[in-house]
Design goal:
The protein has 180 residues and is an alpha/beta fold. It has 8 helices and 7 strands, in the order βαααβααββαβαβαβ. It starts with 11 loop residues before the first strand and ends in a 5-residue tail after the last strand. The mean pLDDT is 89.
Length: 180
């Protein structure tokens, strides 16, 4: 089962590094270890990864955290990346972190299988009603720190497209790749 048999709901995805052991240490330090000083470096790398993406997007949306997780962590790493990206790109989409909301606190995806990850985030996101007209026929750039199975980004894409979004582009710092 791969992308050819089950194409993703997002239209395109780009990442700057492979999610290997070294990248995992870096991402976990950023995500859980308050290593927010990495944000400017990541945003410059992301800019170079795919500058044409930003010309295609009407809105820049970070993958949201549930409010309880945000209180616990004190920052949304995806939002920090998105805000920093806006400082370094020329063709700026509209920063719209409120257009996608996580409705429930999902358990950590960390030691779950692919199917468990998809089940875990199913129906965990919503586009608030007041934004649905603004998304209709538009393109969104979703920003996240890492894509492993793609479950979270798939669910975000599904939610955005159900609200009328025409195209969803995904940009992450790291991405897991299958061997072979």
């Amino acid at each position: 089962m791969g992308c050819h048999n089950y194409p993703p709901l997002y239209d395109q995805a780009r990442s700057i590094i492979v999610y290997n052991d070294a990248a995992k240490k870096l991402i976990l330090r950023f995500k859980h270890g308050d290593a927010t000083h990495l944000v400017p470096t990541f945003s410059h790398w992301l800019k170079r990864c795919e500058e044409d993406f930003f010309k295609k997007a009407d809105y820049l949306i970070p993958v949201p955290l549930h409010w309880t997780r945000l209180l616990q962590r004190r920052y949304n790493q995806s939002a920090l990346l998105a805000m920093s990206l806006l400082q370094v790109i020329e063709d700026k989409p509209i920063y719209a972190p409120s257009m996608l909301r996580r409705t429930r606190r999902t358990p950590s995806q960390g030691h779950k299988t692919g199917q468990q990850r998809h089940d875990n985030v199913k129906n965990a996101f919503v586009v608030p009603h007041r934004y649905q007209d603004k998304l209709r026929g538009k393109s969104v750039m979703l920003i996240d720190d890492v894509m492993t199975t793609g479950a979270t980004l798939e669910e975000c894409s599904r939610t955005l497209k159900q609200a009328g979004c025409e195209r969803v582009f995904v940009l992450t710092v790291a991405r897991a790749v299958k061997d072979g």
